[in-house]
Amino acid sequence: MRADTFGYLQRSFPGLISPVDAYEARYCGRMAVYYASGLNTAGSVCLQRFGKGDRYRTETFVTTLASVAARTKSLAAEYIHEKGNNITEEFHEYVSPLVGRLPEVGYIKR
Q1: Which residues have C-beta within 8 Å of that of residue 21, sequence separation ≥ 6?
Q2: Distance set, CA 66 to CA 42, 60, 82 (Å)
Q3: Residue 41 domain-assigned?
Q4: 3, 37, 100, 103: least buried by Cβ within 10 Å?
Q5: Is 10 domain-assigned?
Q6: Per-residue pLDDT tens digits of the chain, which is 110 residues long
Q7: Is residue 110 one of the residues assigned to a domain?
Q8: In total, how many domains does the chain have?
Q9: Backbone angles phi, psi at 66, to 5 degrees
Q10: How far is CA 109 from CA 1, 11, 106, in A?
């Protein structure tokens, strides 16, 4: 099973950008300038995640381009519902600091 990066949808429709995502994107840009000009460091700026829920925070670090180029990270099996037709509550908890409140999904009654 494969899931696309959340950023793809946001790049195609700017109305879906979460405040946390917008902040982190600008923060990575600022840090890229800092690492490149202030420290003369080459590579890709990455975010390392710490904490959950209200304790969510990130820090930046630089990694080699070879460690991130052309690599896709699939959604972990633990986040896929046992029936294979949805995601788990654990995944909702993982993404909630990044995306905020998700819309409720409706069902058609028979």
Answers
A1: 6, 7, 10, 98, 99
A2: 12, 17, 35
A3: yes
A4: 103
A5: yes
A6: 555 555 566 566 666 678 888 899 999 999 999 998 877 778 899 999 998 888 999 999 999 988 888 877 888 999 999 998 888 999 988 888 888 777 777 778 87
A7: no
A8: 1
A9: -60, -25
A10: 28, 34, 9
**Angle of CA points 9, 55, 34, to nearest 5°:** 65
Domain that holds residue 13: 6-99
Sign of the CA dihedral with 37 first, then 40, 45, and 47 last: negative
Residues forming beta bridges with residue 50, ordered by sequence position = 57
| Contact yes or no for 29/6 (Cβ under 8 A) | no
Question: In the chain, what is the straight-line distance between the N-terminal and C-terminal CA atoms, in Å?
Answer: 30
Q: With respect to residue 106, please indicate whether it lies within any of the assigned structural domains.
A: no
What type of residue is 74?
Answer: S
